[in-house]
């Protein structure tokens, strides 16, 4: 789950909890257009419902938004949709033309988010940081 990552950022100013990922992307795009540097925390299950928002709002206008995407993996006996979605998340984002950064377990998660934000801000490139479940363990994030 995204709980440890959300817990690390929820104390910051301007944090909104939005029920649907596509709505969160729309809000983030609006924030980016007003000069903010938004980050959307989401699970890869939300990529499908968000394709329209990404394809019609984020990518054509190079809206500087960072998507931190928790990629649920096929550990244990997962539901069939988890297996499928874990396989297609990266190809979907690549197909949309979004810059994708794969999580590096040798680098602290907070540093990777900060680096991705610099890329979004400086290059005005919508970017997705793909985070595996292991990256969201409390040991990988700042207290």
UniProtKB/TrEMBL annotation:
Highest taxon, organism lineage: Bacteria
Record flagged with keyword Lyase: yes
Entry keywords, A to Z: Decarboxylase, Lyase
Protein name: Thiamine pyrophosphate enzyme N-terminal TPP-binding domain-containing protein
InterPro entries in UniProt: THDP-binding, TPP_dependent_decarboxylase
Native organism: Actinokineospora guangxiensis
Keyword Hydrolase among record annotations: no
